[in-house]
Each structure stands twice: as structure tokens, then as C-alpha cells.
């Protein structure tokens, strides 16, 4: 964990009020260019060490569309068991202090992933609330996103429905386990950010993103935390998934 005074990473009252009202908050860059270069190298290492880019690789989600006939990675999950620098990031005070402040108690890692939004083929995420995926766990969950690359309207930054976190789970589209039925997804607002910015959001905040139609990709690291009083579920949740990924890689490497 970075040793700079933890006080420096605390949210202001204004930021806390914004989060309370809207269910999300964008924080101006808290990682500098040198750190971002190291984290991008860590992301590259993660991709190499995650194994072959095939649909059967349990650590990868692949984009529906190919690029120049090649499969393209959409998401890597989990990530902290592969590259030590990413485990260090998950424990960084810049991510954990704001989450802990909102919980009113220390935060503990729940889920970890790297989302790509590759140029041209980066696909949309339909409107959803993350808690619809996590219903067997606590709902004291906050995701902290770190934009590794600049996220713009053109390359498909995250978009949030302000205040939707106050509604608990919303109605899903018929035939869909997670996508929300909403007459006007345009009520979501863009959450662009420079590389190194953070975005915090609640597991009930409805969000989505449009496809990337630009030539600039954007990667995001997403670390989700639960409150410590709900215990450490990581070993039985993502830890088990990590084990399956490691076993798959062992049996699929030459
Ligand atoms: O990366 C994105 O564009 C959306 C990610 C997202 O909605 C999620 O992981 O829940």
C-alpha cells in the first residue's frame, strides 16, 4: 500500500454527498504517468500469462466480433493471482480508503477484473446492476474503477443512471437475467475520465457502456470491495475461479 498519508485519499464531504445522491463518483487522476506505465505493463503481462486466447479459456471473455479475423479479449477475470503488481494495486489506499469511508469500516477485496474496450470491436455492455450477479453475497459492495487509458464518449466510457442505487434491484428485460428494462437508457450520464482517474459506484447503480467505434482502446481495472464485517468471501468466490483457471492453463499448455 502507498504510504502517503491516508488522509490524503479521503473523500471530501462534497464528494461523499455526490456519491450518496447519485450512486457514483468520478475522481480526477490519482495515479501519475509513471505508475500508469507500470500498470499498463502489468496488464500486458496479465494478458500473456492468462494463456491462449480461445473461447474455452475460463479466465477470458472474448469479444463477439473478431478484428482482422483474430479473436479479441473483452475481459480478464480474476487478475490478482497472475501478476503481483495487480495484487498490490487491489490493496492500494487510493482505492480502498474511499470505499472504506463510504462503508464506514474497512474494505476487503471481493472481485477483480480487467475490462478491455478494444478499438472498433469493443462491444456494448447493456444496462445492468452488478448486484444482480452477486445476489448470494452481501450487498455492501462498491466497485472502484481505474481508467488505465483515457475513457471518452467516443471510446465507450462508463455511463450511470444517477440515483438508481436507491432503487434496489430493478426489473429485468424478459428473457434476460441481468439486463434492465428501461424505456429510456438515455437517462444515463457519461462518466469520462483521464487515464489514472477513478470511478466509484454502488452494486445497485444501473450502468452500461456503448461500443467503441473509435481507433483508441480503453482498458479499465475494476476492483470491487465489500465491508469487512461481511467477511472475506474472496477465497470461496474469485479464489475458486482462479484455481479453476490455473488448472485449465496447466492442462492446456504444451
Ligand atoms: O467496461 C465496461 O464498459 C462496462 C463494465 C461493466 O459494466 C461491468 O463490468 O459491470
Reconstruct the topology from this structure.
Elements: H1 13-22, E1 24-27, H2 33-49, E2 60-62, E3 73-76, H3 84-90, H4 93-103, E4 107-115, E5 125-128, E6 141-147, E7 158-160, E8 189-191, E9 198-202, E10 207-209, E11 220-227, H5 238-251
Antiparallel strand pairs: 1-9, 2-3, 3-4, 4-11, 5-10, 6-9, 6-11, 7-8, 7-10
The site of 2-oxoglutaric acid has 10 residues, from strand 10 and strand 11.
User: Unreliable stretches, pLDDT < 50, 5 or more residues?
Assistant: none
Count of discrete domains: 1
Question: What is the CATH topology assignment?
Answer: Jelly Rolls
**Which CATH architecture?**
Sandwich
List its traits.
7-stranded antiparallel sheet; globular; 4-stranded antiparallel sheet; binds 2-oxoglutaric acid; Jelly Rolls; alpha+beta; 254 residues; 11 strands; single chain
Amino acid at each position: 500500500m502507498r504510504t502517503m498519508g491516508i488522509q490524503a485519499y479521503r473523500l471530501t464531504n462534497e464528494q461523499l454527498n455526490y456519491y450518496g445522491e447519485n450512486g457514483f463518483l468520478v475522481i480526477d487522476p490519482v495515479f501519475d504517468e509513471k505508475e500508469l506505465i507500470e500498470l499498463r505493463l502489468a496488464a500486458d503481462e496479465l494478458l500473456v500469462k492468462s494463456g491462449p486466447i480461445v473461447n474455452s479459456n475460463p479466465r477470458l471473455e472474448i469479444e463477439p466480433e473478431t478484428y482482422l479475423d483474430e479473436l479479441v479479449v473483452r475481459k480478464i477475470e480474476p487478475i490478482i493471482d497472475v501478476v503481483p503488481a495487480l495484487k498490490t494495486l487491489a490493496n492500494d489506499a487510493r482505492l480502498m480508503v474511499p470505499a472504506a469511508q463510504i462503508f464506514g469500516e474497512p474494505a476487503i477485496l471481493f472481485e477483480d477484473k480487467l475490462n478491455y474496450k478494444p478499438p472498433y470491436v469493443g462491444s456494448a455492455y447493456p444496462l445492468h446492476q452488478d448486484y444482480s450477479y452477486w445476489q448470494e453475497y452481501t450487498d455492501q459492495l462498491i466497485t472502484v474503477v481505474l481508467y488505465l487509458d483515457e475513457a471518452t464518449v467516443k471510446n465507450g466510457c462508463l455511463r450511470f443512471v444517477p440515483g438508481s442505487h436507491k432503487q434496489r434491484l430493478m426489473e429485468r428485460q424478459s428473457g434476460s437475467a441481468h439486463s434492465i428494462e428501461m424505456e429510456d437508457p438515455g437517462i444515463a450520464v457519461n462518466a469520462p475520465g483521464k487515464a489514472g482517474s477513478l470511478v466509484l459506484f454502488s452494486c445497485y447503480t444501473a450502468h452500461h457502456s456503448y461500443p467503441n467505434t473509435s481507433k483508441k482502446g480503453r482498458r479499465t481495472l475494476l476492483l470491487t470491495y465489500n465491508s469487512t464485517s461481511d467477511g472475506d468471501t474472496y477465497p470461496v468466490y474469485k479464489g475458486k475461479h482462479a484455481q479453476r483457471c490455473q488448472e485449465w492453463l496447466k492442462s492446456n499448455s504444451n
